[in-house]
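Retro notes, structure queue

What went well: the backlog is down to a handful. What didn't: a couple of records were mislabeled last round, so from now on we paste the full input next to the output in the thread. Example, using KANL3/Tex30 alpha/beta hydrolase-like domain-containing protein from Solirubrobacter pauli:
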Amino acid sequence: MLEIDTPHGPAHAHPHLVDGASSVLVLGHGAGGGVGAPDLVAATATANEAGVSVYLVEQPYRVAGRKSPAPAPQLDAAWTAVCAALPTDDARLLVGGRSSGARVACRTAGAVGAAGVLCLAFPLHPPGRPEKTRLPELEGVEVPVLIIQGESDPFGMPPEAPGRTIVRLRGNHSLRSDVNGLRAAVRAFVTS
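Corresponding output:
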């Protein structure tokens, strides 16, 4: 585990490295969860099997033991600092995350120089509040985006768009119902 200083306290990066990897995938956790979420674990294993190194990043609020997430500007600043500090050498940088972590990765993709963004269960809007859309966070990404979304996710279903691919899996926001579908989508993304 690497401890990385950020403007908002230390973050932890858990390395899952592959010798000779030409790509590195950096993944963040959801608002109330950690890096042990089943979809993050499955994505990490799949990326490693495809020859891609992975860092699972714990935001400073989680490292400090808080359950409630920090405000978006703090999450983004910490994420940007972590991505800048990771020893990625000359590898192609892919970023992403689960739920809130996917939002952070989208908002910062340009700033960290990402070649692509992997969103696991992107929360398009709060449950039952479609008018509170977060679509501008997706529309601001200028690199390819893959969103893996449960068909019955109460946080909504993002629309397809140029440069944005949606893989719909059976199930909800947890993405636990179709691990094989999740792994196939991640494999295709990291090897493209």
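Agreed that this is the format going forward. Reviewer comment attached to the example: Strands lie at 2-6, 9-16, 23-28, 53-58, 92-98, 116-120, 145-150, 164-169.
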